[in-house]
Amino acid sequence: MARQSEVQPPLRGRAAETAALASVLAAARAGDGAALILVGATGTGKSALLSAAAAEADGFLVLATSGSPNETDLPYAGLRRLLDPVTGEETSPAGALALLRQQERILVIVDDVHHLDRASADTLSYLARRLDNTAIGMVLALDPADGGDVLDRTIPRRTLPPLDERAGRALLDDLSPGGLAGDVADALVAIAAGNPLALVDLARSLTPEQVRGEQAPPVTLPPGSRLLAAHRDRLSALPPAARWLTLLVAADEELTTHELADAARRSATDLRALDAAVAAGIVRVDADRVLVNDPLLRQVAYHDAGLADRLAAHRVLADVTAGGVDRLRHLLHRADAPDGRDTRPARLLARAARAG
Predict the structure, then answer these.
(1) Model confidence over 89-112: pLDDT tens digits?
(2) Strand order in the sheet with 34-39
(3) What mean pLDDT do residues 216-242 have?
(4) Residues 27, 139: contact at Cβ < 8 Å?
């Protein structure tokens, strides 16, 4: 497997967020500090934006840290790491504010706030509410799936949107200076669903033959992808029944609540098991539809399932959709769970294609 350069690619499609970070620095320079929370799923570019802010902080003392899942039960562990360059002592929220005010000009950067201990996260909220008449800028980043409410909702925040197609293609050009075959670029943009890290992982996984369009492009995230590992961890934390129901949802983007209830019954699964996936932010119920929240997570839930489980899911969904008005959905599920002795699905799909 050929790997492209590991140099950090430039930011693409983040002009609004870059401008917001510049405003935080400008406010601190003017003596009227400001805070900003960047909210985004794994791979949307939060860490890259934090690095960009630090690079632009000329004349600032930059204090930076990130949350650690191993220290969530240690009160003030994150705060002590953050303040270590200016003091080695544990401090109260008021003491932390006084300490920061003593500095001439300071930028506080904290990544993965959702992995901070509760006391440190509360202290950051305390500080962010008290930046008037200070030379302090704060930029904090968190994942909404793990800690959307960990910081005070009154603090300004920006949610990072998916990259649009133009920005995605520009990022691919950065990653593959020699260019990609057009259909390969199309495939990667579609798979990545606007996630910059997904584009990076996909582009760096391509073989020379795939770059030239001589081999089929990937259909999902590559084995070494950091995003793949993160999504696997989220899915593996679900109970088996919840993973099965999530697979059913991932196998059909148009699944209704009624159809999922029918599929659960046919597969002898308690529908209430879905509550675990909803609570984990993996699945949502939207009116009469059931959806996987993240397109990449949907891909992993489907492609990472064993072949036997995928076939079983399509068989159940074929039965569920057999009497529905959308004949094509039923035929597609039958085609995805083929019976080698039955050629009717192929003939029926061909007929449906001819009929438009």
Answers:
(1) 657 899 999 999 988 899 999 999
(2) 61-66, 106-111, 136-142, 34-39, 157-159
(3) 93
(4) no
User: Please, are residues 274 and 255 in contact by the beta-carbon 8 Å criterion?
Assistant: no
CA distance 101 to 134: 7
Q: 142 - beta bridge partners?
A: 39
Q: What is the Cα–Cα distance from 167 to 337, expressed in whole angstroms?
A: 37
Mean model confidence pLDDT for the chain: 90
Cα angle at 205 between 243 and 10, to 5 degrees? 105
CB-based contact 7:116 (threshold 8 Å): no
Stretch 266-272: mean pLDDT: 97
- In this structure, the number of other CB atoms found within 10 A of the CB of residue 242 comes to 24
- Cα 286 to its chain centre, rounded Å, is 20
Residue type, 167: A
Q: SS3 of 47, please?
A: helix
Find the angle CA(53)-CA(56)-CA(62) to the nearest 5 degrees: 65
The whole model's pTM is what? 0.84
Is the confidence at residue 293, as pLDDT, over 70? yes
Residue that is written with structure tokens 């790997």 in the block: 3
Q: Which residues have CB under 8 Å from 223's CB, separation 6+?
A: none
- Taking residue 13's Cβ as centre, other Cβ atoms within 10 Å add up to 20
Is 184 within 8 Å of 157 (Cβ atoms)?
Answer: no
User: What is the C-alpha to C-alpha distance for residues 324 and 256, in angstroms, rounded to an integer?
Assistant: 12
Continuous H helices in 212-321: 226-236, 240-250, 257-266, 274-279, 295-303, 307-320
Residue 185 pLDDT exceeds 60: yes
Q: Residue 152 is inside which H or E element, if any?
A: none
Quickly state the pLDDT bin for 341 (edges 50, 70, 90).
low
In this structure, the number of other CB atoms found within 10 A of the CB of residue 192 comes to: 27
Cβ distance 241 to 270 under 8 Å?
Answer: yes
Hey, what are 246's tokens?
């999530």
Pair type for strands 34-39 and 136-142: parallel
Number of other CB atoms surrounding residue 199 within 10 Å: 27
pLDDT higher for 110 or 181? 110
Cβ contact 101:130 at 8 Å: no
